[in-house]
């Protein structure tokens, strides 16, 4: 039997490697347990600048500015942060910036926090209403391919793309008292 934690790290490491292979040089994020491996690896990598945000909508400006400066950047956030970004997403359309985000989902599988459910249910629709193409990863073996496809669509074709990492993929979050 394989260790579930090693499988978890394997697909998360695959995501980081795909970001590197596609020339990502900046990673903007609000700290999140679901993104912890990629954040840790970005911090360790001298070729990648990690940018800690106080709120997710700042990340839309950071990744847009990176593009203007000739670099590829990604925004890592939780589904609850998508609601914070809706107004800033208009910048992407108005300026025709490419955009790529990876969103860890909440409010789905075995969610303990009722406050996460409304935005969890609305995340994909909110992104789509703002002109962002949404791909969803539900199994570890699909993670690298969907991240790669999204990066190509964003940075080679100038699209706006969000990859949703399902809560069942990330694993249960447990309330600790």
Descriptive report:
The protein is an alpha/beta fold and 177 residues long. The chain has one domain: Thiamin diphosphate (ThDP)-binding fold, Pyr/PP domains (Rossmann fold, 3-Layer(aba) Sandwich). The protein contains eight helices and six strands; from the N terminus they run αβαβαβααβαβαβα. Helix 2 links the parallel strand 1 (24-29) and strand 2 (49-52). Helix 3 (56-68) crosses helix 4 and helix 4 (79-85) packs across helix 6. It is globular. It starts with a helix and ends in a 7-residue tail after the last helix.
Outline of the structure:
The protein contains 8 helices and 6 strands. By secondary structure, the chain is an alpha/beta fold.
Task: Please name the fourth-level CATH homologous superfamily.
Answer: Thiamin diphosphate (ThDP)-binding fold, Pyr/PP domains
CATH architectural group: 3-Layer(aba) Sandwich
Helix content: 40-55%
Overall pLDDT confidence:
91
Number of domains: 1
Instruction: Output the CATH topology.
Output: Rossmann fold
Radius of gyration: 15 Å
Q: For the largest beta sheet, what order do the strands appear in spatially? A: 2-1-3-4-6-5
SSE topology string: HEHEHEHHEHEHEH
According to CATH, what is the class?
A: Alpha Beta
User: Using DSSP, what is the number of strands?
Assistant: 6
State the helix count. 8
Indicate the multimeric state: single chain
What structural class is derived from the secondary structure elements?
Answer: alpha/beta
Uncertain regions: pLDDT < 50 for 5+ in a row?
1-5
């Amino acid at each position: 039997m394989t260790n579930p934690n090693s499988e978890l790290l394997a697909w998360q490491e695959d995501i980081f490697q795909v970001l590197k292979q596609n020339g990502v040089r900046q990673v903007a994020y609000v700290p999140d347990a679901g993104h912890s491996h990629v954040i840790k690896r970005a911090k360790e990598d001298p070729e990648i600048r990690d940018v800690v945000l106080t709120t997710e909508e700042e990340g839309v400006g950071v990744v847009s500015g990176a593009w203007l400066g000739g670099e590829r950047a990604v925004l890592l956030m939780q589904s609850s942060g998508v609601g914070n970004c809706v107004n800033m997403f208009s910048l992407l359309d108005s300026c025709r910036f490419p955009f790529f985000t990876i969103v860890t989902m909440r409010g789905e599988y075995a969610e303990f926090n009722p406050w996460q459910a409304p935005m969890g249910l609305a995340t994909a629709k909110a992104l789509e209403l703002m002109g962002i193409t949404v791909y969803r990863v539900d199994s570890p073996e699909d993670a690298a391919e969907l991240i790669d496809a999204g990066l190509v669509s964003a940075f080679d074709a100038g699209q706006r793309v969000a990859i949703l990492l399902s809560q069942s993929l990330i694993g249960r979050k447990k309330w600790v008292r």
